[in-house]
Amino acid sequence: MQGSSNNNNNNNNSGGRFIDEICNTFKQAIDKEAKDVRCERELLENEKAAFELNYKKVQSFHSSKPITLNIGGKKYCTTQNTLTKYRDSFLGAMFEGYIPLKPCKDGSFFIDRDGTHFHYILNYLRTGELILPQNKPHLSEMLLLEA
């Protein structure tokens, strides 16, 4: 009788180990799958953030109304978003509504400054970089006087 009891114990022990092995195998597979899902989720969240950033940029181009400036007789077209990029600047204050504006008959806004080099200022507002030609060394000084 005791021999059959030992066989049952051995069978129970080997059956228990088999179940433990299956459980461990499933646990490892589930852990790996959960890790893969977390990695995929992180990638998707990064893609979503990049998409939302690009979407905001596109929206700012399309949702901002065009504005025509008459700078000393020279006309420039841009957007309100460009002009208000630096809200504490003169142009930012003008087109955020802090300075009352009255458009000219043609709808442009007149600013009594020299318009010859104003495109450098607009490009700076658009890109955040002041790019000047090297063959005009006094241009930066002239722009500072106009700014």
The percentage of residues in β strands lies in: 5-15%
Percentage of residues assigned to helices: 55-70%
Mean pLDDT: 83
- Principal-axis shape equals elongated
- Could you give a short account of the major beta sheet? 3 strands, mixed
Distance between the termini: 105 Å
Low-confidence stretches: none
Based on helices, strands and strand pairing, what is the structural class? mainly alpha
Please provide a written account of the structure.
- By secondary structure, this protein is mostly helical.
- Helices cover 62% and strands 10% of the residues.
- It has helices spanning 2-63, 80-83, 90-96, 118-127, 139-146; strands at 66-71, 74-79, 109-111.
- A 3-stranded mixed beta sheet has the order 2-1-3.
- The protein is elongated and about 95 Å long.
Secondary structure topology:
Layout (H helix, E strand, L loop, with lengths): L1 H62 L2 E6 L2 E6 H4 L6 H7 L12 E3 L6 H10 L11 H8 L1
Parallel strand pairs: 1-3
Antiparallel strand pairs: 1-2
What key attributes describe this structure?
147 residues, mainly alpha, 3-stranded mixed beta sheet, 3 strands, 10% strand, elongated
Offer a quick outline of the entry.
The chain is built from 5 helices and 3 strands.
